[in-house]
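Students often ask why inverse folding is considered easier than folding. One informal answer: many sequences map to the same fold, so there is more than one right answer. In these notes we will look at a single instance of the problem. The structure comes first.
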């Protein structure tokens, strides 16, 4: 007994499911035995019972109603008067974090394939720090655009290069951070949209493979799924894994924006029997991965390890990192040059990136944000004359076409996002990814909550989201006068003199 009064809405919803029909029966009996007037209340309760049953079993469009029945309707009622409440009392549409209502609504509208045109004027600041895209005097037509294919592995003559036809990737999220139905939703959506999905560092990607989309297998520092008894890479396990046709590329995770300098973390609340078996970890304890790979003790061994994974897998192999000390990144790239060994891509993840679970101090205070980090990485690769040896994938709050376009101008070839796709699948930013209580059923293993996710419907929303993002990126591209993403450059951005981006263009560190 803690003495605290805590309202658990999920339990309350379960209670409501039983209580409403029970009360209906009681009022009916009261109508028969005590007074006829009780029948009026009975009729109201019959209506509530039917409505509750319809929300939970008769519709698929609203995950919240499928999980919470009529209680869930409370949220929609509050939401419908939300704009007024916020306008007079609470936050405005541009204030919430990590994603404000405007940003979330843009994703929801794209996912539901609703016209996202705005009226009257922008709510953005037009002050001295806002970066903007420069348009051409004579924009080009869509029919003049070149296809935005990106081929990974072509630079080093990889035996199995992979061509991504649309420049979008669903970023790493493990089975563990995600529940089974969320994995299936994203994988089915990726397949429909014809894009890649990253498995995250959760080990053998059982459900991803069952859905049959094209995959990047991510190898985190704990190497779940491919490690030996000492936690080092077991070459044979990797060979067996990549023999699966769906696995097209491998990503070695060095760090992640939300917690650079720390290994992955899966809270004990989310360790089911299945996850404990898949990862080879104990139930009832948080799973904390080491901060770095056992094989990588310095830049020389890190570059050798990348080559080794390329050799063993025979697939394109990339690395994922958040920019920290620029001179270290320069040293890493110089070593790649010295060994003539390059990863096929580098994912630059901004410190504003999300996580299933990360220490708050790391989330808030460690790592360089995406735009300056990406700019710095692109500059170093260019200065050392090796930008053409690999691709750059960018992630970090790239959920709408505006920020995505800026990232493309700063050097990214491909846009990667985790939370964009979570929002497209109905995420309401409840901020409960680590506690196994996600009300939408995305980052939970609770079967009762997962049932809210209708896989087919939400997979279609993932596809709609990609279609509409691509549409907007193409329109923005046309406005710059460029025929392809590869023609975009820093010169296509208007960067006011007070912008922090300038610091990363001129300063060496
Ligand atoms: C629920 C969740 C789980 C994640 N799991 C992983 C992971 O297994 N490996 C990893 O490298 N990044 C992981 N990430 C980080 C994302 O892959 C991505 O780098 C980051 O969220 C930035 O993209 P976003 O801002 O579009 O979400 C996770 C993020 C979320 C929200």
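Output (designed amino acids):
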């Amino acid at each position: 007994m803690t003495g605290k009064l805590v309202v658990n809405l999920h339990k309350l919803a379960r209670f409501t499911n039983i209580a409403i029909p029970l009360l209906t029966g009681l009022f009916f009996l009261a109508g028969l035995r005590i007074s006829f007037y009780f029948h009026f209340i009975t009729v109201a309760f019959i209506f509530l019972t039917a409505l509750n049953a319809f929300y939970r079993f008769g519709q698929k469009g609203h995950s919240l109603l499928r999980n919470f029945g009529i209680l869930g309707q409370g949220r929609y009622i509050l939401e419908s008067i939300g704009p007024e409440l916020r306008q007079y009392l609470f936050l405005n549409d541009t204030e919430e974090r990590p994603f404000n209502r405007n940003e979330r609504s843009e994703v929801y509208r794209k996912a539901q394939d609703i016209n996202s045109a705005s009226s009257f004027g922008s709510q953005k600041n037009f002050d001295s720090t806002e970066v903007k895209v420069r348009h051409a005097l004579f924009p080009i037509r869509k029919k003049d655009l070149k296809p935005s294919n990106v081929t990974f592995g072509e630079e080093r003559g990889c035996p199995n290069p992979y061509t991504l036809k649309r420049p979008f990737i669903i970023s790493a999220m493990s089975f563990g951070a995600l529940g089974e139905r969320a994995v299936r939703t994203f994988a089915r959506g990726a397949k429909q949209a014809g894009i890649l999905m990253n498995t995250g560092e959760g080990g053998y990607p059982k459900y991803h493979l069952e859905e049959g989309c094209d995959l990047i297998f991510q190898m985190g520092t704990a190497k779940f799924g491919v490690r030996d008894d000492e936690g080092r890479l077991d070459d044979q396990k990797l060979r067996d894994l990549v023999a699966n046709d769906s696995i097209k590329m491998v990503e070695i995770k060095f760090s992640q924006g939300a917690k650079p300098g720390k290994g992955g973390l899966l809270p004990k609340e989310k360790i089911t029997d299945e996850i404990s078996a898949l990862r080879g970890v104990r139930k009832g304890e948080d799973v904390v991965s080491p901060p770095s790979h056992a094989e990588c003790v310095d830049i020389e061994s890190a570059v050798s390890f990348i080559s080794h994974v390329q050799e063993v897998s025979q697939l394109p192999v990339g690395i994922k990192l958040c920019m920290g000390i620029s001179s270290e990144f320069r040293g890493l790239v110089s070593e790649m040059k010295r060994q003539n060994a390059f990863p096929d891509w580098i994912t630059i993840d901004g410190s504003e990136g999300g996580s299933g679970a990360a220490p708050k101090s790391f989330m808030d205070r460690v790592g360089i944000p995406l735009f300056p980090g990406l700019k710095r990485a692109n500059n170093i690769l260019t200065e050392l004359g090796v930008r053409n040896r690999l691709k750059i994938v960018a992630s970090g709050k790239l959920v709408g076409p505006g920020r995505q376009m800026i990232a493309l101008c700063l050097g990214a070839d491909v846009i990667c996002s985790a939370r964009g796709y979570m929002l497209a699948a109905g995420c309401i930013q409840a901020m409960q990814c680590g506690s196994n209580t996600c009300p939408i059923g995305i980052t939970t293993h609770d079967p009762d909550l997962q049932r809210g996710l209708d896989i087919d419907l939400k997979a279609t929303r993932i596809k709609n989201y990609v279609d509409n993002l691509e549409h907007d990126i193409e329109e923005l591209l046309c406005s710059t006068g460029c025929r392809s993403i590869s023609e975009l450059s820093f010169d296509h951005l208007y960067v006011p003199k007070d912008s922090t981006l300038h610091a990363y263009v001129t300063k060496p560190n």
